[in-house]
Amino acid sequence: MAGNHIKAEKERIRKIVRERIRGMGEEEKREKSRAIIEKLLLIKEVENAGSILAYYSMKDEVQTQGLLRTLLRRGVKLYLPLTRGGVIGVGRINSLEELERLMKKEGSIVEPEGRVFRGLSRLDLAIVPARAFDIEGRRLGRGRGYYDILLKRMEAGKKETFKIGLSFECQVFERIPSEERDVDVDMVISEERIINIA
Question: If phi over 0 gives left and psi between -120 and 50 gives alpha, with beta otherwise, what is residue 105?
Fold first, then answer.
């Protein structure tokens, strides 16, 4: 696929997903998110991980608030994306109290307030959202490349970081276009299935 055609196809898929999610009610999103998180927490890579990069969900993503609380209660070192001066990085959430305080802040994106963590390649696991995934682990984000940047930095180390994508089933496609800069995941979990690519 030529570059312009790939970009157009990605936009077409983003639009399809946007409409599908818009058609879901809040209760349906909550129920499906709960089913996805229950599956996720039983995955051995998650059970064995001491440090995890996760995300605080936006309204149109698999809801992760309960997941983040559970990981902190388990004693996992939890990291979330943050931006400093337009540059993407990650920071640590040190306690459940810190998470709850950040979640209460009015109208702001939930991200760690402390220092930017420099040891991305040492993290055990990454849990990431997307606009769409395919059955071979390709990931289509919102078009800014933030997670691709983070995941590439994670791959820069000697240790292989296991990457899991969380997705509503309506976001899973047979095949989505990808470019060289796109980073695939090792597993996709929806409310209906676990797709193990690795």
Answer: beta
The pTM for the full model equals 0.92
pLDDT of residue 71: 98
CA torsion angle 173 165 34 81 (round to 10): -130
- Dist CA 72 CA 189 (whole Å): 21
Report the pLDDT averaged over residues 69-75: 97
CA distance 164 to 46: 9
- Bridge pairing between strands 194-196 and 187-189: antiparallel
- The CATH superfamily of 3-196 is NagB/RpiA/CoA transferase-like (3.40.50.10420)
